[in-house]
Amino acid sequence: MKPTRIAALMAATALTGTAAFADTELNALFMAQAAYSEEDIRAMTASFEAANPDVSVTLEFVPYEGLHDKTVLSMGSGGAYDVVLFDVIWPAEYARNGVLVDVSDKITDEMTSGILPGAWTTVDFDGASYGLPWILDTKYLFYNKEMLAEAGVDAPPATWDDLRAAAQKVKDAGLVEYPIAMSWAQAEAAVCDYTTLLSAYGGDFITDGQPAFQTGGGLEALEYMTASIEDGLTNPNSREFLEEDVRAVFQNGDAAFALNWTYMYNLANMGEDSAVAGKVGVVAAPGVSGVSEHSAVNGSMGLGITSTSEHPDEAWDYIVHMTSQPVQNAYARLSLPIWASSYSDPAVTEGQEELIEAAGKGLAVMYPRPMTANYQEMSMALQQGIQEALLGMASPAEALEGAAENSGL
């Protein structure tokens, strides 16, 4: 642990005795997986409390799968939270239902010019900003350099067909039974992986207000997913994996390839509990010959103020602190900063140059999941359809037709 983090955590400990006497108490809801660790968020919060002794922040962490519902349900119970973490796919719904405060008038010129343009898509909807971007993320293709060398694979895959060919070589060499690990459980994680492939194949989710993912690139994406399991290349347990399961399999040395978020790079490549430390490579997710060079899903998240907060000014101050460049630069090992100039700072880039190079390509082509107020309904239908196809309960075409019918569009 870095000394600065130790100091921050000591500050947090010192403040616990005085938190009850703070003039203002904020409640903040965060995600208990991927991106920043709970320890990091607690340290970031402690530094805010140290600078604002009249404010204390109570943190709650839930799995991603519970983040949306926990936020929405709290609105009907008098508003349990002042600050909430939200996914890029929720601003349309939250704006329609008045969940978050429009903070457009709080955005400074420094924020507008300094934050990467693509990051603003995380919090903006219909001309308004509903918070500040905090996690700038997409999925990357991770690979085991040692395994690829032993299998005679000279370079990481540039296309999804290359991935299948490389995985087959690894399998034929007897290095692992299933070379690829994916997070394809019936959850949003599977939709993110599916979106990555859909973008590679040039597909669309919606055309003229109607579902379009059941044809063209959307259909080809699911056909690729099912074939990779049928061919014995993707671990069949991927149908039950979330991102942390993928990380565990990959860093235990039981997979040569994995699709996952930024946070996995340093945990797998430098973590004390990783069996593949020093052997991890990372590139932007592959493309499809003649269609795309790279592929990526927009997995970014923002911090917003709930409309029921009784302390919106203090909540905004907390959000500004958590998203500030100094804080983001200090914790750039699990989530890359939203600030453009951070990428020329050695404190951010040193030791993760390979990741920064992959980010330069992946973040530039992030494909959005549909920005629709009915997204939750659409996602649930897609999750079910993807699972049916992966389990062989329906063909990819049949599964996606059913998802389109149940998408709420």
Structure, explained:
Its main location: periplasm. It holds the Pfam family SBP_bac_1. This is Multiple sugar transport system substrate-binding protein. InterPro entries: Bact_solute-bd_prot1, SBP. It is found in: Periplasm. This protein has 409 residues and is of the alpha+beta class. The protein has two domains: 3-137 and 299-365, Periplasmic binding protein-like II (D-Maltodextrin-Binding Protein, domain 2); 140-297 and 374-405, D-Maltodextrin-Binding Protein, domain 2, CATH 3.40.190. 43% of the residues lie in helices and 15% in strands. The chain is built from 17 helices and 14 strands. It has helices at 3-16, 38-51, 64-75, 91-96, 109-114, 145-151, 160-172, 188-200, 216-230, 243-251, 264-270, 312-323, 325-330, 346-349, 353-362, 375-390, 396-405; strands spanning 24-31, 55-62, 83-87, 124-125, 128-129, 132-135, 140-144, 180-181, 206-207, 210-211, 257-260, 280-288, 292-295, 301-305. The strands form four sheets. A five-stranded mixed β-sheet has the order 2-1-3-14-6. Strand 12 (280-288) and strand 13 (292-295) form a beta hairpin.
